[in-house]
Amino acid sequence: MRNSTVQILNDPKIIVALDFPSQDPALALADQLDPAKCRLKVGKELFTRSGPELVKSLQGRGFDVFLDLKFHDIPNTTSAAVAAAADLGVWMVNVHASGGEKMMVACRERLESFGADKPLLIAVTVLTSMSDADLAGIGITDSAEAQVSRLAALTRNCGLDGVVCSAQEAPRLKAEQGADFQLITPGIRPLTADKGDQQRIMTPTDALKAGSDYLVIGRPITQASDPLAALEAIHAEVVSV
Ligand SMILES: O=c1ccn([C@@H]2O[C@H](COP(=O)(O)O)[C@@H](O)[C@H]2O)c(=O)[nH]1
For the Orotidine 5'-phosphate decarboxylase domain, which residue ranges apply (predicted)? Predict the structure, then answer.
């Protein structure tokens, strides 16, 4: 069962991406962090190495976990995968919106049996590492903003809780899909941080002002010389937005 205590008491907006190669550095960082100030994201590398046990270890430390495996497969396979994530008691799980309507509806329906313990189900629109030119390279001639808008509308019509998008798209999506449709935004970069491979970026404060519900932040925290200080600085910046 999901630990909902933290969620009831408060609603941390920062999700720290634990993009580490193994369990030890991930837990070492988690042990410095406060579940009242952040949630944690487990992605493909860490989950492939350390799996459900690592998720359980993080939950045992009081953290809500976003399992960011971006499932993209046929409806039967993907819905079984999100049910497996729900069995793990994660707070949030995701699929790719480009998997289409039948896949997303199958996932939502499969989670209904989990009742109040079901995780939030969200869909990735256009990866924040992609520009308009990158989209053209895969045959999508619309802008990233237009493609995100189209996939967000599809996601909402399928009854999911929200999308992963860039904070740059947040004002348009809030206007089109409503305030309750959750926007989870990676590509967050404090002014002094390296952009790295991200294309559609925004600062933490600007992202919240634009309408982001949750900020996914990895390297600006995990690669900082003092990760705890980096998180504290971002937390202090956004707590009053
Ligand atoms: O569109 C997307 C979807 C997921 N991500 C993930 O978020 C973090 C971002 O990490 P940074 O180090 O802050 O760039 C990472 O785990 C990605 O897999 C994304 O960036 N964009």
Answer: 13-234
